Every structure is written in structure tokens, then in C-alpha cells.
Hints:
Layout: H1 2-25, E1 29-31, E2 37-39, H2 54-66, H3 75-90, E3 94-103, E4 109-119, E5 126-132, H4 155-172, H5 176-179, E6 182-188, H6 210-217, E7 228-233, E8 242-245, H7 246-251, H8 253-265, E9 272-277, H9 283-289, E10 295-299, H10 324-339
Parallel strand pairs: 5-6, 5-7, 7-10, 8-9
Antiparallel strand pairs: 1-2, 3-4, 4-6
Amino acid sequence: MSFSRIYGAWFALAATLLLLLIGLTSCDKTTGSGGETKVTDPPLVLAPAPNFNADTAYWFVQQQVNFGPRVPNTPAHQQCADFLLASLQRYGLKTHNQAFEVAAYNGTILRSRNLIGAINPNAKKRILLCAHWDSRHVADHDKDSANWQKPILGANDGGSGVGVLLEIARLMAPDSAKLGFGVDFIFFDSEDHGQPEFDRSVNNPDSWCLGSKHWAQNKHVPGYQGFYGILLDMVGAPGAKFYQEGVSLEYAPSIVQKVWNIGHQLGYGAFFIRESTDGIIDDHRYINEMAGIPTIDIVQYHSASGGFHPSWHTQGDNMDVIDRATLKAVGQTVLQTLYNETAPAQPLN
Ligand SMILES: [Zn+2]
């Protein structure tokens, strides 16, 4: 009995030493999804940052979905816009309701609203955090053609980005005095009202991202300048992998590296994949091209393995595809990136 206990203790000690040895020899490396080994950058000093609450973010996604599809010109769309604006106001942000009308690919006039909330509205240095809040009017990527004409709930495509940003706004607003910069939360409308896959009567590849294009030409504050921007789109699915998207790498490579490095250092390396993928049409493209603000997109997209999440533009884009772990990984990483602006990050040695 005593022998086995001592033997067991020695065995545990030996096992611990072995694990420590493995840990020490591999601490400067990470293993990527394909099994390849990559050397990481030197660790950054991480400024103290709030703890992102994934339950609250999940609740914000649920609240949006509860309105039903948020398609322009519908009551659900108006009700959700009012809810989002009221949420930003409740946390003390200065809000702008940028109402505009814009023609869709088929000539339908979309009564649209870009919703904006500012922390430290008078600060000169400003960082944009954005997501689209409308949901798609058709499910044109659904396997069942009977669903094509139905609008989608857009829990992931629309709801997830906004949900993460509202939680960040809630956490950052009380710290506004010590930030030393301003943050603008911009929820773009009419991003997802592009020409359906089943409607090729007209050819209009420019029919997406109508809200961000409108904002880029009509800033909510005259002469508005942004330091950089981060767009979130489809950031809620279980096991999501975020590759480094082409437009982001073209216009804002240092922001991509900064965010991915912070994501890895926080332990979210399984989400933030250090591998590039093709550029896509999303709101950040127009913020870069038309507004000239370097902006990245954190989006679940990988050209080499089938594109977006399988629920993309289908009736399956509902709360079943929202996972708190993914909301947490993205939310904590973006939050940390912003708090690191308060104290410039330095290598530890
Ligand atoms: Zn979409």
C-alpha cells in the first residue's frame, strides 16, 4: 500500500517533469491546423482589459433574431434599429441615426439606416468597429429551392458581429476617460441585399454593401478621419476559423498582424489562422477604397475549403449556429487590441 503510494508519487513527479520538458521545448512554437509548425512573434505586453462576456454577446444576438429577419422596408427592421440605437444610448454613447434611401439591384428603394455610437466623440484619434445589421431578403444559397424566396434570420450573418460589438461598447463605455482615443461603433444597413444567385435578369456585381458605400460618401461627422477599422462579419459559428482576408492584407496588413498576434497570445490560435485567403466583397472594401481608412475584416471565409460557413444565405442561419466560444474569442481579441492602444505594446525582451 505504502509502496504503491510512493511509487505513484514518483510516477506523478516524473510525468510532471516530462510535461514541463515538452512544454519548455515547444513554448516558442504553435502547431497550425494542417499540422505545420510555425514560430510565433515575441510576446506582447497586454494592457489590462475587461473580461468579454460571451453570455451577454449571445443575448444580443438572440435579441436581434427575435425580431425576425431584419430586411429593409419591414417592421422588424425598424424595430431592431430602434433597439440597437437604444442599446448604444443606454451605455452612454453619442448616437447618430443616419437614415437614407438607396436603390437595390432590382430598383426597389430600400429605406435604410446606418446606426452609429461614439465613445469619446471629441477625441481626434478614432478607431472604427463595424458590422452590418441587416439580414438577407432571400435564402438563395439554400439547398432547397423552395426556400430561396424566404428571408433569413441572419443569426451569424449580421447578428453575430453586432452582438459582439454591443458587448464591447457596454464594457468600454465606463472606461472612456482613460482610453485616450475615441471609438465609433458603426452598424451598416443594406449590406446583404445584393443580387440573388437565382436572379440573373440583371447583372449588378455592385449591389452589395450599400450602407457602407453611403457612409463612405456621407460621413456622420464632416471631415471624419479614422485611425483604423475592424469589421466583424459571421463571427459566431462553432469552431470558426478566421483566415487573413485579401483586402485586409492589401490595405491594412499591420492591423491584421496585430490582431492575429493578440488572438494567439490570448490562446485563441485555433480561431485566428495565420494563412491568407482571397479578398471578398464586404463593407471593409469600401471603407478602404472610398473612405481611405485602413480596415480589416474578421470573417469566417476560406476560399480553398468552400467559402463561408455552410449556413451562409440559407434558412439554417439561426441560433443553432451561434457558439459562445467563438463570440468570446473574437470579442476578447478585439477588446484587447483596443486596450493595447492605451499603452503601446512592446516586446517583453
Ligand atoms: Zn450575407
